[in-house]
Amino acid sequence: MKSIDLVSRLRETDKKIELLICQKARASWLRYGDSCTRFYHSTLRWRRLRNEVKGIEVGGIWCEEPSTVRREAKKLFKDRFKATKDFKVKLDVVEFKTLSPEDNLSLISGFFEEENRDAVWQCEGSKSPGPDGTKLGFYKRRVCSSIVMHPS
Q1: Which domain does 107 fall in, by range?
Q2: In terms of Cα–Cα distance, which of 113, 101, 104 is closest to 151?
């Protein structure tokens, strides 16, 4: 029993330390991060330098000329994200799941009154389906009973 107590106390202490670190980081950001300070601008400069593309290899030769880098980057993205006639996007070896023609037809086909009635009747009546607050019991009593009583 003592080892279980020690483990639970250790976990509690770890959570408290983690919360303290998060609060300190948040306080530091509120104090320095959003104002126009040296810290803020040095962070932006560091991020800009880290994300900068300095050059590109073209045909086995390293090139740092901005116009060439721009042209090759545009060509790379244009080739990579080019749509084909069958509208499939291909990214190297990544395969995207697609619907079969039968599944696609079932998704775009219309709904039958019986399907709607069955869907409403399968739901619990005390639940609210949306922000209007109308419970499903209302629909069960009013709408679906009229469909059952007066089929078209």
Answers
A1: 101-149
A2: 113
